[in-house]
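Q: what sequence does this backbone want?
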């Protein structure tokens, strides 16, 4: 009798109206967003070389950040771009922004407004940071920068001659940058920077990518790719490393850490739904096998 009751219960779970599952998922996400749990993070093997490189660079070494994504990739890639920008400025490293994507300038503006304007108001445009903006061309643009930066960017996004910008005073070609980091939402992006920028010049090249696209770049690590921030989790790991390594920054916004709670809850619930949805099938199969062995 008990076996029949258990079987009926499992059958009901397997055929539960999916709307209840959606409701449970929504409630769990809302509660998680309201509670904002802090999940412990440990920097990964792929992320640490990028973080350590920025830590080891001497003050004044210029970093190129290529913001190669649009609004669709912003939830995953912007938190890591904010974290790397914050890290560079905290260490006194001038940051130069550019983009291979036409949507890039608006994304760069978000970074400037959220980090530089608010957290580093003393930073001087043209000296501590500069924006070159967007130019079409993809890998051909990178090839041109390998030869001479001023040939493609005679002026910055504000119309100032780059020869007058202290942030670019020591920069003639791409090889003169201490580090190139591409936050890549697709093509053109990190892969092009590795193949057409890092390989020919030897400039250390790192990047960030969406979680689903990160495995594509692991083949380049560590010889061609210095480091990789993989998805929202990678961005959360970077925020944690930065908070631990630079307590002088105080309590800065951590959008990736805030997003990891709902993402973790959602993934866990989906896995549980899959388990319960197939439990009835597994139990029936086991009973058939046991019954067959006994006979």
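A:
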């Amino acid at each position: 009798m008990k076996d029949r009751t258990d079987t009926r219960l499992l059958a009901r779970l397997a055929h539960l109206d999916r709307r209840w599952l959606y409701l449970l998922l929504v409630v769990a996400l809302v509660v998680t967003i309201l509670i904002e749990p802090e999940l412990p993070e440990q920097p990964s093997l792929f992320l640490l070389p990028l973080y350590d490189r920025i830590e080891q660079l001497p003050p004044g070494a210029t970093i190129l950040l290529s913001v190669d994504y649009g609004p669709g990739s912003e939830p995953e890639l912007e938190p890591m771009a904010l974290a790397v920008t914050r890290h560079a400025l905290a260490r006194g490293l001038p940051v130069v922004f550019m983009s291979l994507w036409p949507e890039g300038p608006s994304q760069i503006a978000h970074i400037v407004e959220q980090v530089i304007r608010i957290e580093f108001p003393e930073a001087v445009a043209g000296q501590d940071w500069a924006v070159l903006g967007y130019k079409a061309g993809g890998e051909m643009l990178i090839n041109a920068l390998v030869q001479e930066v001023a040939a493609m960017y005679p002026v910055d996004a504000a119309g100032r001659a780059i020869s007058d910008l202290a942030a670019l005073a020591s920069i003639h070609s791409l090889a003169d940058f201490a580090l190139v980091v591409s936050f890549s939402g697709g093509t053109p992006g990190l892969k092009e920077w590795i193949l057409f920028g890092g390989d020919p010049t030897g400039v250390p090249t790192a990047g960030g990518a969406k979680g689903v696209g990160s495995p594509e770049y692991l083949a380049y690590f560590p010889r061609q790719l210095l480091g990789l921030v993989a998805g929202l989790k990678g961005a959360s790991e970077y925020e944690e490393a930065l908070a631990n390594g630079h307590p002088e920054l105080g309590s800065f916004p951590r959008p990736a850490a805030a997003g990891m709670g709902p993402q973790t809850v959602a993934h866990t619930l989906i896995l549980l739904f899959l388990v319960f949805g197939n439990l009835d099938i597994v139990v029936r199969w086991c009973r058939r096998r046991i019954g067959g062995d006994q006979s």
